[in-house]
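Researcher: Next sequence.
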Amino acid sequence: MKILTFDIEEWFHILDNGSTKTEKEWATFPSRIEQNVARILDLLERKNQPATFFCLGWVARKYPGIVRKVADKGHEIGCHSDMHQLVYELTPGQFKADLRDAIRAIEDAAGKKIISYRAPGFSVTASSPWFFEALAEQGIEIDSSIFPAPRAHGGYPDFGTTRPALVRTPGGNIKELPINTKTVFGKPIIFSGGGYFRILPLPLLRRWIRNADYVMTYFHPRDFDPGQPVIKDLTMIRKFKSYVGLSSALAKLDVILDECRYTDLQTAVASIDWDNAKVISIPKDARNYSA
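Model: Next structure:
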C-alpha cells in the first residue's frame, strides 16, 4: 500500500520560526502557492495519478480557486488545520476552534465534506491525548498526523505502531495512518516526503519505496519550487533542511510515480481490514480535555 499526499500550504509556512509564525508575518511575503500547486497537478494529470491534498483553511479562504481546482481534478481534499500552528502549543479549546474554522473554510471552497486530517509538522505528541477525540467531535474519521519517531516537532515514538491502526476514544474512533519508518543502524528513518525525500539520493529512495509494503508520502508545494526566496533568519541547519534538493525533487517524484502505483487516502482506508487492525486506546482520564 503506497499513498500519495500533499500538504497544501505556502512556501513561507515554516514552523518553529518567529518571522513565519502568524498571519501578520505571512502578509510580508509574496505568494507562490498557485504556481506551485499547478506544477503538482500537471504532473499528476500526466501520470493519471490520484492523491490526497491536505489543505489549510487559510489557503481555502484566501485562494478558494486552488481548492476548487484540486477537487475538480478528482483528488481527495483533507484538512491541514486552519492557521498552521503546532498542535502541542495549542490548548484543547484553541485546537478545536482552529479545526472547526478550517473544516468550514475548506468545505465551502471544495464543495465536499471533509473527513480526513493531518496536523502541521506532524505535531501530535503524547502530551496531547485529547487530539483524537477532538477530531471525532468534528466529524473527522481518518487521520495521518502521527510521526512514530523522534523529530524536531516532537514526534510520537511511543504511539504503539508504525502501521495503520484504529484509535479508540470516548468520543469516537479514528482510523490512523501514520508516516512509515525504516530502521537504519537501529534508528527509525523517515524517507517518504519533505526534506528527507529531497536530501536522499534517488536510487536509495527507489529501493526503499519499492521494497516497502506500506508507504505514506507527504509533500508540500514548496518542495518543488527552486525559485522560492530564502527565509533569512533561519539557522544554517534549517536552511539546509528547507532548501536542499529543491531543483531535483520534481524529477525524483516523476520517476517514483512511474515505478509504483499510488492511491489516495480514502481508497487506501477502504482496502484495510480494520477489524484486525491494531487498536490504540486513549484513556479518558488522560485527556486533560477541559482547557
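Model: Residues 166 and 274 are 7 Å apart (CA to CA). The radius of gyration is 18 Å.
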